[in-house]
Amino acid sequence: MQQVPTLVINGQPISQSVAVLEYLEEAYPDPPLLPKYSLQRAKVREITETICSGIQPLQQKSVVLPKIGDEKKNEWGQFWINKGFVALEQLLNKTAGKYCLGDEVTMADLCLVPQVDNAISWRLSIQKFFEVFGSSSHLFFNGDTSNWEQLGLVLRYVVDGVPVERLLEFILAEETTGESLCNLVFQSLASNGLDIQLCRSQTMDGAGNMSGKNVGCAAR
């Protein structure tokens, strides 16, 4: 079907994400992509198939655009991803720890992260999906992020009179002063080609010090 990913082993191509992951698990079992016990393995596969069979085909742009057209593509993609994430949220509410199943990375996590990225590209607001958002966020950075401060940068803008909210990225914050957080925001906007002069800031949760009178985002 001329699709990626495709893994080539000894000249033999293996396509489709789940088939590739199952091969890697069998050929290279350490570190494992599936847990030890049968029921847990089944739950990982359930989450994986919910993403790869239940969500991904219905929001794949090469399939959607020829049938739906460019005008209604976002409405279509958002509907099916939202429907899938509602189901995922219920599953992860019972299984998630740091990752989709407990505190170890499994093949479910390797499928969830690109699906969250797709959801963002479809302009779906994912903040309401706490478990989906939380389980995927740890893999946006390398290493153990449990004690790291992370700044989530969300942009709100209007397209054709419709308000849109989009997660731009997570930013590792080594310092949490108003000035340092402000500098991170400026750097992120510049790297994404956005003019700070056209933006207005709003802080949420523990980032209130960004509005510092002297050196925070509001001041600058």
TrEMBL record:
Single GO MF descriptor: glutathione transferase activity
InterPro entries: Glutathione-S-Trfase_C-like, Glutathione-S-Trfase_C_sf, Glutathione_S-Trfase, Glutathione_S-Trfase_N, GST_C, Thioredoxin-like_sf
Entry's Gene Ontology BP terms: glutathione metabolic process; L-phenylalanine catabolic process
Stored Pfam families: GST_C_3
Name used for this protein in its record: Maleylacetoacetate isomerase
Ranges of residues in domain GST N-terminal: 1-32
PROSITE patterns assigned: GST_CTER, GST_NTER
Species per Swiss-Prot/TrEMBL record: Mytilus galloprovincialis (Mediterranean mussel)
Sequence ranges assigned to domain GST C-terminal in this UniProt record: 37-184
GO cellular component, one term: mitochondrion
